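thoughts on both lines:
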Amino acid sequence: MSKEKTMQLRKSVSPFEKADMRASVRQMVNTLVPFIALWVLAYLSLSVSVWLTVALAVVNAGFVVRMFIIFHDCTHGSFFKNKKLNAVVGTITGILTLFPYEKWKREHAIHHATSSNLDKRGVGDIWVMTIEEYLAASKLERLKYRLYRNPLVMFGLGPLFLVLISGRFNRKDARKKERNNTYLINASLVVIYTLLILLIGWQAFLLIQGVMMFTAGALGIWLFYIQHTFEDSYFEDESEWDYVKAAVEGSSYYQLPKVLQWVTGNIGFHHVHHLSPRVPNYNLEKAHTSVPPLQKATTITLASSLESLRYKLYDVKNKSFVTFKDIQDQLGTTQSSKRLKSDLQK
């Protein structure tokens, strides 16, 4: 893509970057009110059936995901025009979703600035190894990577790690503002959770909050994973890396049913979001449908997205993700060729 086309594409998206106060407030209302209502219903349902309580907690996880999208927009300064208002709402939704606002804001900004850059991986993204890196790694490092990419670990232990560990501690190089924000969110959680436990009991609290946050965490990791892990995803070395290509070719368009699209705050239009993080989530679909080049992004459906669970390593030479089996087959063929060559030389 030429620089001229790149500039034109970014210019075409700029009209959708304006936050709409009414739309933002409306989204907060239709997210926070159902969230609170479902939480209360889940508690009241304990007198009827524990399974009904679990079901309501799972449904409410969808509103946690939707709330996280509001939090996410605030970190980009796109939910409101006012910077302080973004920080206040971002911190409040950070408490409710268990994410430190300032810390996540910083790490996510790095993710956007380095997404699909092979030389700048490691902050705010999914761990991706190239074939060459994997083959050169020690057995212990390969084992770590295999465990990390295992669905049971990624979507089972992943949510627990994010909520209980990653989100509770500051980075070593965190600035004072970032540290204080994490302390504020952690202290708020201690107070709120203590009051809820005293009010309804630890068993009821753990059942409702635990099921809800674990489900929301697994869904969140899945959304982030699928939006960057698909067969022909874009990755390049620093010298060849291009921001627009990384956005449009390195992020998918996750085409979801309308209900799920609403629950996930249109984040399926991830290519638009990466092209311009200033576009609020309620304008992402408008930008996608109004700018034809954006419609060329890789489209993934619910059914086809399951294929991405197979992709483990990035093949730099062929510009695509491959499976561990593909590598084993290649290694097997290479070893057979070496043995044949050795036999012929004897």
